[in-house]
Amino acid sequence: MTELRVANTQVEDIWVSEPELRRRLGVSRSTVARWRQRGFPHVGHDRLRRYHLPTVLRWISENA
């Protein structure tokens, strides 16, 4: 099984806010919004939106 790492951090069960997600991935707000329109996995809405980092990284590798 391959370990996913972001910025020298082991990814296990990490949930992040959108600003933290953008910082970790180095992408813009519009990129995340565009991904959400294409089915980017998240829970909540607006300011309460959270992203499960392992799921997000898998989605990116399969869809972006």
Strands, helices and their partners?
Elements: E1 5-6, E2 9-10, E3 15-17, H1 18-25, H2 29-37, E4 50-52, H3 53-63
Antiparallel strand pairs: 1-2, 3-4
Low-confidence stretches: none
SS elements, strand count: 4
Mean pLDDT: 86
In CATH, the topology is named Arc Repressor Mutant, subunit A
Number of helices: 3
- Helix and strand pattern: EEEHHEH
What is the molecular shape?
globular
Q: Biggest sheet, in brief?
A: 2 strands, antiparallel
Please report the first level of CATH classification, the CATH class.
Answer: Mainly Alpha
Strands side by side in the biggest sheet: 1-2
Count the domains: 1
Cα distance spanning the termini: 22 Å
- Helix-residue proportion: 40-55%
> Rg from C-alpha positions?
11 Å
CATH architecture annotation name: Orthogonal Bundle
Which percent band covers the strand fraction? Answer: 15-25%
Structural class: alpha+beta
